[in-house]
Amino acid sequence: MIKDGRFILDGMENVVINIGKVTTEEELAEQEWEPMGPTPKPGILSLRNWDHRLLKDFPPFYAPICDMCCLCTYGKCDLTGDRKGACGIGIEAQQARMVTIACCIGTAAHAGHANHVLHELIKWRGRDHPIDLGPYIDVEAPIIRTVVGTRPKTLGDLEEVLNYVNQQLVHVLSSTHTGQEGSYIDFESKALHVSMIDNLAKEVADIAQIAGFDFPKGDPDAALIDFGFGAVDRTKPVIVFIGHYPAVSVATIDYIEEHGLSDKMEVCGICCTAIETSRYSASAKVIGPLSMQQFFVRSGIADVIVLDEQCVRTDLLEEAQKTGAPLILTTDKICYNLPDVTNRDPDKVVSDLLNGTPGVLISDPLIAAQVITKTALEIKPKRDALNHLPELDEVQKLAEECIECGWCDRACPNSLPVKDAMIKAKEGDFGGLSDLFSPCMSCGRCESECKKDLPIISMILKSAQDIAFGETYTMRAGRGPVLDTEIRKVGAPLVLGEIPGIVALVGCSNFPNGEVEVAKIAEEFARRNYIVVATGCSAMAMAMYRCEDGQTLYEKYPGSFDAGGVVNIGSCVANAHIVGAAIKVAAIFARLPLRGNFEEIADYILNKVGACGIAWGAMSQKAASIATGTNRWGIPVIVGPHGSKYRRAYISNKELSEWELYDKRTGEVVEGEPAPEHLMYPAETMEEAIVLTAKLCIRPSDNAKGRQIKLSNYVDLYKKYMGTLPPDLHLFVRNERDIPITMKDEIMEYLEEAGWKPRKAIGDPSRLVPEEEV
Amino acid sequence: MTRAYQCANVPGPHLGKVGTSASVAAAIKRAERPVLIVGSDLRHLDWALDLAKERNIPVVATAHVAGAMREKGVRPDREMGAIEITNLLKSPEWGGVRGEGQHDLAIFTDVLYYLEAQMLSALKHFAPHIKTISLTRGHQPNADQSLPNLSEKKLAEFLAGVMGELNES
Ligand code: SF4
Ligand code: SF4
Ligand code: SF4
Question: Could you give the CA distance from residue A207 to residue A211 in angstroms, rounded to a whole number?
Answer without folding.
Answer: 6
